[in-house]
Amino acid sequence: MEEAPASSRHDLCQACAIRNQAICSDLDPREIGILNGIGRRRRLAAGEQLMWEGHEAVLVANVIEGILKLSSHSADGKEQILGLVYPSDFLGRPFGETSPYGVEALTDSHICVFERRDFERFAREHPRLEHKLLERTLGELDRTRRWMLLLGRMTAEQKLASFLIEMADRLGTSEADGSTTVLLPLSRQQIADILGLTVETVSRQLTQLRAKGIITLSSRREIRIDVIEELQTIAG
Amino acid sequence: MEEAPASSRHDLCQACAIRNQAICSDLDPREIGILNGIGRRRRLAAGEQLMWEGHEAVLVANVIEGILKLSSHSADGKEQILGLVYPSDFLGRPFGETSPYGVEALTDSHICVFERRDFERFAREHPRLEHKLLERTLGELDRTRRWMLLLGRMTAEQKLASFLIEMADRLGTSEADGSTTVLLPLSRQQIADILGLTVETVSRQLTQLRAKGIITLSSRREIRIDVIEELQTIAG
DNA sequence: CGTTCGTTTGAGCCAAGTCAATGTGTGTGG
DNA sequence: CCACACACATTGACTTGGCTCAAACGAACG
């Protein structure tokens, strides 16, 4: 694909946009060199599937650019999005045979992939990497558990408010007047699949928030949050 | 409390019931000795609180005996149980300042506690322990994500069926006739708090499953599952 | 034996789901 | 460039699963 010649390989990581945020950040130049040897870059188009629920987990990756979703389906076909993965996040299931979820790119993405086996071997030999991975996994577990509270105990309105706050936090650009604009990487259906709701309910709640003057729906995917404090009050 | 004299401390771990399942299982005798020095045993009565949501996380622990719950409260006071912790499971939030959930013993319990700082220092110096902890955390993350699907996309009936299957799996004793009996460590309210339902709905669903001849309610806390296949069909 | 706490049952209601129609971009081929 | 198709989004009408409120029941315990 876009393999660099062996001599310049070393530079791939050095020039990496997420060099200092990802789990590789603690490694010394020699270690980075080895990692470079077993990893490769890969591009994904929006909508492209990287892993399938229940299939063998052959690879893991670092996300360099783009947003991906982890999702799982109930017996009767309903989808539940289990999490979103952002740049510098780690992706995949090391030390496990099968992937418990499917992975799909929501936007055009750029990732740094490793054969799971290669990565595991490297990780076991480099405790600093495993430590980084552990910290990340613990953080991810906390975030996932917070999402359980949302799914189990919040009303549709509270769910939407919480979702918008999170998106503003992650992807928002603040304006001078205190408002924040978010360009959503998700369709209404996908928002519903995150919040455990239906498309119709998501749509209705958004129009209600608009009617209350809390948000402005600039275009399908673009939402401006005019009064974020109101959202925080609703979310609790 | 029940401190052993320094000379016999070493034996505490050797005699430990979960010696070969917990995260300490890979350590050599010397390492076990150090761990012994920084840990201590502690008993908890059913209902006793070990950690508080949002408070500083001062300790971590291994569960030797008993079952504990992790839970969190929404702004309007509703509780959501985020997970159950069983013997040989690890408990607490290493490498984090505050505990994102409360921890309470559901049954009389016996745990092996460490000051978080001490544990962290030891872990960083002993990669085999960190690796075990990583594997455990990854598994816990998978289990938590599976629960998200339940909370977001299942009906009350499916939730109950899934819950009973999980409990039978974890705590059930199989009879000769193919049935399984479970002694629940949870009240109806707590079951509701796990499944994101109300007590009334839990009660109604249980009576319905009984009416269908799938389960028998021997006593409040004791449930016999007569036809587990039926439950699996319902759960999907 | 009465009190208490957890559980079950009942009646009514409401939030969110379902089903169906309409609206709104966006891209495609004539 | 327009018209058509198609996918996504919104809105409306209706239904319903699970919640709320309230009462009755039952086991455990002083």
Automatic annotation (TrEMBL), chains A, B:
Pfam families the UniProt entry points to: cNMP_binding, HTH_Crp_2
DNA-binding in keyword set: yes
Domain HTH crp-type intervals: 154-229
Stored SMART domains: cNMP, HTH_CRP
InterPro entries registered for this protein in UniProt: cNMP-bd_dom, cNMP-bd_dom_sf, Env_Response_Regulators, HTH_CRP, RmlC-like_jellyroll, Tscrpt_reg_HTH_Crp-type_CS, WH-like_DNA-bd_sf, WH_DNA-bd_sf
Protein keywords: DNA-binding, Transcription, Transcription regulation
Descriptive protein name: Crp/Fnr family transcriptional regulator
